[in-house]
């Protein structure tokens, strides 16, 4: 039986990406993006929102491009969900879930105002495809 691990997100960066390098010199960028869904409350008729934060990891060429991103940029991310365990500074084991990006597109456009019938006007600024084996490089 085949399986699929694919994630597609469009969200805004919460902060500038953080760059690191492996012992072999491979660049790794990490950043968080927020995705927000909105709906009209049945009782009050007012708008409700829920925001989810996603940790994104980009390797090599994609990491170099991600370094150019800034807080607030709207980005399109394709990748896969990956979880890993590590030992925290306090000695306790922790588990983290992150998205390993394999495609990233910067979107330029107006902010989404969910109260209008016309959706946001957006354009793709740049398309940043990744290298094939980048998620295989250990941190």
What does this entry look like structurally?
This protein is mainly beta and 139 residues long. It has a single domain, classed as Nucleic acid-binding proteins (OB fold (Dihydrolipoamide Acetyltransferase, E2P), Beta Barrel), CATH 2.40.50. 5% of the residues lie in helices and 55% in strands. The chain contains 1 helix and 7 strands. It has a 5-stranded mixed beta barrel with strand order 1-3-4-6-5. A hairpin with a 5-residue loop joins β5 and β6 (93-109). It is globular and about 55 Å long. The protein starts with 6 loop residues before the first strand and ends in a 10-residue tail after the last strand.
Question: Care to give the gist of this entry?
Answer:
By secondary structure, the protein is mainly beta. Helix content is 5%, strand content 55%.
Series of secondary-structure elements, N-terminal to C-terminal: EEEEHEEE
Structural class: mainly beta
The CATH architecture would be Beta Barrel
Q: Roughly what percent helix?
A: under 10%
User: Rounded to an integer, what's the Rg over CA atoms?
Assistant: 17 Å
Q: Total helix count?
A: 1
Strand order of the largest sheet: 1-3-4-6-5
Q: What would CATH call the homologous superfamily?
A: Nucleic acid-binding proteins
Q: What proportion strand? A: over 45%
Please give the largest β-sheet: 5 strands, mixed, barrel
Distance between the termini: 31 Å
Number of strands: 7
CATH topology: OB fold (Dihydrolipoamide Acetyltransferase, E2P)
Nearest-integer average pLDDT:
84
CATH class: Mainly Beta
- Ranges where pLDDT stays below 50 over 5 or more residues in a row are 112-123, 131-139
Query: How many distinct folded domains?
Result: 1
């Amino acid at each position: 039986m085949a399986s699929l691990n694919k994630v597609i997100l469009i969200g805004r960066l919460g902060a500038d990406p953080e760059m690191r390098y492996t012992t072999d010199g491979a660049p790794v960028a990490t950043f968080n993006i927020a995705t927000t869904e909105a709906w009209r409350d049945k009782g009050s008729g007012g708008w409700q929102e829920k925001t989810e934060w996603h940790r994104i990891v980009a390797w090599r060429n994609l990491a170099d491009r991600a370094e150019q991103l800034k807080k607030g940029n709207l980005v399109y991310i394709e990748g896969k969900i990956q979880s890993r365990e590590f030992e925290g500074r306090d000695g306790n084991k922790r588990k983290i879930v992150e998205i390993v990006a394999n495609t990233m597109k910067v979107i330029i456009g107006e902010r989404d105002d969910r109260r209008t019938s016309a959706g946001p006007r957006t354009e793709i600024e740049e398309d940043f495809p990744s290298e094939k084996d980048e998620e295989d490089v250990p941190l």
